[in-house]
Amino acid sequence: MKEIKSILKAYKNLDHDTTRAALATVVRVEGSSYRRTGARMLVMDNGVWVGGISGGCLEGDGLKRARLAIAKSAPSLITYDTTEDDAHQIGVGLGCNGVIDVLLAPIEPTDPNNPVEVLKNVVADGRKTNVLLTITQLDGELNGLGAGHMIRYQNQNSLHALADESLIDEVEKAVQNVIYQSKSAGLAFTLSDGREIELFAEFLPPELHVILMGHQYDVFPLVKVIKEAGWRATIVANPQKLHREVTSLVHQVVAPEDFVPAELIDSYTAVILMSHDYKTDKRNLPRLLPTSAAYIGMLGPRVRSEKIFRELSEEGYSVSQEDMERIFAPVGLDIGAITPEEIALSIVAEIRAVFSNRAGRFLRERESTIHER
Going by DSSP bridges, is the β-strand pair 40-44/49-51 parallel, antiparallel, or unpaired? Predict the structure, then answer.
């Protein structure tokens, strides 16, 4: 989401009377690549770009081809094949051994439904999970839609723009599978007139939201790392106890007496109890357990959290085994962190691992590929 926001900011600042732009999107990856499907780059015809589609090896060629697409006012689908041992192949120096399809779509600023405007609506809608359908290949048009057009799926009515009833039913089934799998996918269908259409169905969850319940000095480095990761941060604390530099980095500050978990927490939210006050953390933990937070971290040694669990049980509030699986105490990965900055790194790394359903171990010990294929 951070990349999308950077693209939107750059697009907003464009003078469309003098500068044209195209959106480059990775729509298919086979094998290994530095970036995965959904990676984007906004390219301007003046040679400036924002975002990225690789680790740097494809951006130069992508820039040239995007400017050509802008000049022709026509989208194009480019395939980069780094599996061949050919020194003349763009990107072969990276050694990724993958095949990457990049869609280059010129942006028409007068079109209220151009891809950038669709992305703007996605960001504006905040905490919704989206599926974005981009036409990657189509000979001609379908109800005025062609390659490069993007449809934001909200329900089956969103697909009426396709104007082909049999296609709508097939796409609906495929989209529901994308949602169920929580994974983007390439889709291919045959139209009633015999033409082939290919779509990139991008599963786009909301940005991760981290709620920090505390105001001590170690909140600052944690907020900075969260901000750099492109996530949303909320602090639950007395605003008067926070430095203004901290408050400038977070999405919002909520006073403890105004904190309503059900209004702020969804399944893409992590919460960290870090007040440095035993009674406060003990009081807040039961408030979080009924929520859908997938991650609840507790700062402090293991004996401290075990004491909280024991006392809550003695008071008639037993923490279930299911809840224990989403409570991380002590919080953070075991990287030998000592300083507040290092501890912040270990916490953010653990949150990323949990939401990726990973164990957080050394990659060299992973028997399968880094990314699912």
Answer: antiparallel
